[in-house]
Sequence to fold (193 residues):
Amino acid sequence: MTAIKDLHEEKLFLYTMVRLYKPETVVEVGVSQGKSALAIAMALRDNHQKDKVPGRLKAVDDWSRAHGGKAGSKKPAFELLRKDDVARYVDFISSDSQAFLRGLGTHSIDMIHVDADHSLEMAYADTFEAMRAAKKLVLVHDTTNLPKVTEAMVLINNQMFPCSANIFITPMRGYWIGSPSAFNVAASIGAGI
Ligand SMILES: C[S@@+](CC[C@H](N)C(=O)[O-])C[C@H]1O[C@@H](n2cnc3c(N)ncnc32)[C@H](O)[C@@H]1O
Fold:
């Protein structure tokens, strides 16, 4: 069984955010072999067992680059979570991130973790849709180690959050943290949406 102390610090960060925010609905776009999904699912298990808060993760990936850049399947992620008996908190969904996020209603999901395609266009588009669909929290991974993701977050900050205080946490390859309610106000004013 994976213990909390065994989680790598960036997965421990995810675990901690899920324990703090206690979301009932979580979406992750970009699952790969399931390491971040494991941390989220462990936190959902603990929210349920310790605090009686039910929660589910929708783990979304098109599995196009799930195995070190090569196409794969959901099986390794499912097996990783099954070993720790937390796969029952997760729905594994095969979809393109944009198709999935665009299908979500505004403010319909408590928390969204973005970690799929790391190009400028896709990191921007996934974060934008996540900020629209989320109610409490958006976390974007790889914001300090991948320049295109950094650039996408700067664009989001400049265009959508002219006076926000989003955080680039520098260890752990960087997380950008977004508050959807502020975004929806800023987006409707700043972007004329
Ligand atoms: C960096 S990995 C995710 C790592 C995982 N979050 C973790 O920390 O263990 C990125 C994943 O995004 C998936 N992906 C890339 N582009 C995608 C897209 N447009 N839609 C859905 N998934 C995509 C790839 O198949 C890959 O599995």
